[in-house]
Each structure stands twice: as C-alpha cells, then as structure tokens.
Amino acid sequence: MNDEVKKASLLYLAQLQKFKNNNFDVHKDNLIKKLQNTICGEKSASFKTVEDIRLFIEPYIEFRTKTDSLVLCMGGERLEDLQVQMVNVLQKYKDAAYNMNNGEGGPYFTSQSKYEPTILEEFMGFLLSPLMRNLHNIKCGPVKAYSEMNIEVSIDENNLAITNLAQKTKNQDFSIYTEKEISSDGLILQIPLISIECKTYIDKTMLEGSINTAKRIKSGNPKGKFYVVSETWDLSENETVNPNEIDNVFIIRKCKRRTHEAIDANVVKDIFNTIKNDLLGLKLNTRPLDQIKKTGKLKL
Fold it and tell me: Which whole-number Å values give the CA distances from 152 to 155, 163, 168, 180, in the listed order?
C-alpha cells in the first residue's frame, strides 16, 4: 500500500471522527470503516489512490458540516424552510455519491458494502432529530428490533426448573425505539415505536420482504408503526397491493427506478409530519382514565 494513500486515509479519518457521534451515523461509520481498511493494508484496502479518497470523502464532509448546522437551527416557524435546505444538501451529496460510485468500469463499491444505501438511513436521523429533543428514554437509529419472546425451561442436576428468556429480533434500518431490561442477566429488548426501512428502490420482491418484516416487528409491538422510505419504485404499472402491516410507503423521488429525478421536499416533509403525528398519538394514548379525561374517548 502506497504510503501517501495511508497518510491521506489517516488525515480524512481524523476529520470524520471530529463530527458528533449519533446513534444513526451509519454512513459516517461506513466511510470510517473503509478508511480503516485502507490503512490496514493492501488486501483489505477500500481505496486505491489519494484522489479516490478525496473524491469520496470530501463531499461527505461538506454534506455533514451543512447538515449538522441546519439541525442545530431546526425548530419553530423556520422548520419547513430548513427542511427544504436539508433536502437540497442531501440531493447534492446523493448526486456526488452516485456519480462517483457508478463511473466508468461499474460501481466502485459493491452493493454489499452499503455505501449508497446508508446515506438515506443516516439522513432519516437528521431529519427526525428535532422530534427527539424532548424525548428522554427514546433513541433513534438502526436496531435489532424485538419481535418475539420464547421461554425455555430445563431441569438442572439438582432437579430444579431453570427458566430462560430468549428473544427473537429483526435487524431494522432505522427506528425510533426504547429499551427495556427484562431479566436479571441483562436481557434488553429494543422495542420500536416507529420502524423505517430505507431503500434506493422498491420492487415487488422487496415489498413482500418488507411486509413480512412489518408483520414480525408488529407481532412484538402491535401499536408500533412501520414505514418504507424509498428513493424510487420498480413495480409494474398494474401492480396491486393488498392491505398489510406496512403503514405507508414513501417514494421521495416520485419516479421509477433509473430515472433519477430530484428528491421532492414535500414528500420529505410528509415523512416528518407523519412521524410527528405518530409520536403525538402515542403520547396521548396513555392510561385509560387519562385518555377519557383528555379526549372523552378510549382508544383501544
């Protein structure tokens, strides 16, 4: 491995590590891992030249610097204007990332490396962060979402029954979730209030997979919400979708796959407002007596 490439990797690694750490920093962590792989040696190198490093990392530094600044200002009457600015910043970075990754010779990073898909996952955290400011024991980011609990019973050498709790989980791109410790040996459940699957496009097979995931996660928390946020769609014109556990599918470019239209800020605002109303609904859905006193209704 060229010493100049390692030196550049170390320099950019230090710059990325200066940004605030969030639970949802999946794209930043992805880039950090790629730089670390490059530093480790030739066999695991993610970048081949100093120019490659510069072209992939500098656009993210610009995206992250501007996004962090916008998030600090988000709130009040300027919220929608700042959301539009945030979408514009995302659009610029997405275009740069797409062009770099899909140049001559095909994708620089394979789909398995999740270089492009993690951009949208991280953006969801920034977009929804204003909703998280006053929530005390609620987090957001990727989780192993609780879906089912098994109780396993065995008998030990002293003829005593031993009970063990074992949970089944499903990896989730992005969730607003809470954690609950339920056993003395430290078993912790990550329970999504709201789950979001992020995709660059969605076709029939992906949609069916998301429906199955939504079914599993909602079996653990029936009142939770499940959404898919996709850049584009790849369903046939006559495709029909039966009612299912997905609460909504948002297509932020409002176009078919490979047409690469601009991200629609109104769809992004709709995502924000939908999640905001979901959280408000959960806040109102407290004890039965509280519901009746506040609204005169009982939501079961």
Answer: 10, 6, 13, 20
